[in-house]
Write a structure and sequence with these properties.
about 220 residues, alpha+beta, 60s Ribosomal Protein L30, Chain: A, five-stranded mixed beta sheet
Length: about 220
């Protein structure tokens, strides 16, 4: 017998340090979903989804199916003086690469810390749209970075949908590695653009300190 429409399973506790992530019950998917915003990431062993909406930012979906754990991030590289003679996103020219490394290493480190094994990691990558036709193509730079990073770390990329000019909505099953993606061709981009603009402004105030040690 199927459960009543209103019935839903109990929400299982999340892993330590992810308590701030918003998780909700999706009646359509009939799953709990962790929604991540620009600058956030989420790792889980639970039977739940991870969702986000991307403009020029990128997301790496990384999982270890054998260990039953996966995670997704949502980040962009700050622009540097190498990209523009008018705007400096970050403190030095190398901050863009350092910030990208920081964002990716935090995700991978949490996966390994919670039971994943490096040799079993797989990935899928999305985003990097040029949602504004003028200015620096930060989406393209984000796309190039995530591809190069995962290649250097020997994490296979099983699927990708990068660049172009449309935002994307993602729903990731971190246990099985399945991704549902919707191209938002007709979406009014104001919400996404405003959210990413705020995130980009925040990057101007931050400086990545130190390195992240991987297990």
């Amino acid at each position: 017998m199927s459960l009543p429409h209103e019935s839903k399973p109990e929400l299982k506790p999340c892993l330590k340090d992810f308590e701030h992530i918003n998780r909700y019950w999706d009646r359509h998917q009939k799953y709990y979903v962790a929604k991540i915003l620009p600058g956030e990431f989420y790792v889980t062993k639970n039977d739940e989804y991870i969702a986000t909406t991307l403009g020029s930012c990128v997301s790496a979906c990384i999982w270890d199916e054998k260990a039953g754990i996966g995670g997704m991030n949502h980040f962009m590289l700050p622009l540097t003086d190498a990209d523009s003679d008018k705007v400096l996103w970050g403190n030095v020219a190398s901050d863009a690469t350092r910030y990208g490394n920081y964002a990716m290493e935090h995700l991978i480190n949490e996966l390994l810390k919670n039971g994943a094994r490096r040799e079993y990691l797989k990935s899928k990558v999305f985003g990097g749209a040029k949602v504004l036709q003028q200015g620096v193509d930060i989406g393209g730079k984000n796309s190039d970075f995530v591809i190069e990073y995962l290649s250097m770390e020997n994490v296979p990329i099983l699927a990708e949908d990068l660049r172009d000019n449309y935002p994307r909505k993602l729903i990731f099953n971190p246990i099985e590695g399945k991704v549902l993606m919707k191209r938002l061709h007709l979406l009014n981009n104001n919400t996404i653009n405003t959210r990413e603009d705020r995130y980009r402004e925040k990057l101007t105030q931050e400086k990545v300190e130190g390195e992240v040690d991987l297990f």
